[in-house]
Amino acid sequence: MSAKVLIANRGAVVPRVIESCRRLGLGVAVVHSDADAEGAWLDLADDVYALGGETPADSYLSIPKLLEAAAATGATAVHPGYGFLSENPAFATAVRAAGLCFIGPDARWLEAMGHKTGARRLMAGQGMPMGASSGLLGADPAEARAAADAIGYPVLVKPAQGGGGIGMLAARDAAELNKALERARTMAARSFGSAEIYLERLMERPRHVEFQILADGRGGAVCLSERDCSLQRRHQKVIEEAPAPGLDRAEVTALGDRIAGMMGALGYDNLGTVEMLWEEGTGFAFLEVNTRLQVEHAVTEEVTGTDIVAAQIRLALGEPLDQVLPRRPEARGHAVQARIYAEDPVRFLPSAGRLTRFVAPVAEAVRVYSGYREGGRVTPFYDPLVAKVIARGATRDEALDRLDAALAGFVIEGIRTNIPFLRRAIGHPAFRAGRVHTGLTAEILAS
């Protein structure tokens, strides 16, 4: 391959994408804001472009600046990473209009899957298992109350566009619903530029299980494996693992194959993650489709031996799936990822500052990705993710033991991190036994 990839992002995803670009023989250009002038990824690239600004709007969310960076560095393709503009159809369209390859699905998929109620309709038409939900809600609160009555309380008020748990509010009766509606609209408008909201039935203690899909737009699609992302805080994933513990393997494998068939029939292209909720008695229900690389993709790589980022790039460059992945890999062993955040481990408030010490662990079957290095500055402008630590083992217990040891050996000073909570979670009896669900964090904190 002869191409240069501009990575239009920051932080831990950048060295991960660079890793795959180097394996493929591709040149790499990176960008940074003024706040990230000391970013650890800057030394890994062939070309570096300063976007200026400190806030996301002035840097990593500026489509004109990113296109200028691509032109200035001679990039022929753009990898959007995750977050920021990775699922923005206007960005994908602008990249392709500039004559560049956008490393991700076609803009029509970003548009279709980015609107949650539209995605639900689309996937329901393919036979996807669905939980009860409403359509888009108008301004009349009576309409929302009628929809909630039809679904049955408790319900979840959700933005129709966006994700990451932002703007999701629970309501257990009509009084709570009335309060949640306007607040959710306000949060959705501020975060996603759209005040559209809808309702879903609220599952109190579900599992969050997602399926990694690769597709080529020609009808070819495969599910690599599933991941469990149930350990969350405020709807944000904290620990992810593959395979999902304690579920019926035949059921999970059959659903993964079924989902791949749906995505292939739709003509979906490139990489995608189909997120599902699972609860005892009712089984799986569709949540959403993420049309980008997931933060937690590496646990699937570890158990399948597949370089997902390289596959994503090759599919974007036009290779058919059967060439990118000649044989479906068999999942072996277990892998777990922990997200280290710059935050108080008790109150979970953000913690910014200079990293007076930053020494990542080096150990067998452990991978670490970070956008920081010793002496660097963690600012309040961006997501507080400091590092991702991934551990693999022949068994789940071995993977968890290796992850715990890696976290114990990760030296970070100058800021506070959630490492104490992560180790507490890994050692909790319910988590160790695989009895995971989205409310487990509250139980861990209360124990």
Automatic annotation (TrEMBL):
Record domain Biotin carboxylation: where: 1-446
Residue span(s) of domain ATP-grasp: 120-317
Gene Ontology MF annotations: ATP binding; ligase activity; metal ion binding
Keywords linked to the UniProt accession: ATP-binding, Biotin, Ligase, Nucleotide-binding
Stored InterPro entries: ATP-grasp, ATP_grasp_subdomain_1, BC-like_N, Biotin_carboxylase_complex, Biotin_carboxylation_dom, Biotin_COase_C, CPAse_ATP-bd, PreATP-grasp_dom_sf
One Pfam assignment: Biotin_carb_N
SMART domains in the cross-refs: Biotin_carb_C
Domain of life: Bacteria
Protein name per Swiss-Prot or TrEMBL: Biotin carboxylase
Organism: Tistrella mobilis
Classification of source organism: Bacteria, Pseudomonadati, Pseudomonadota, Alphaproteobacteria, Geminicoccales
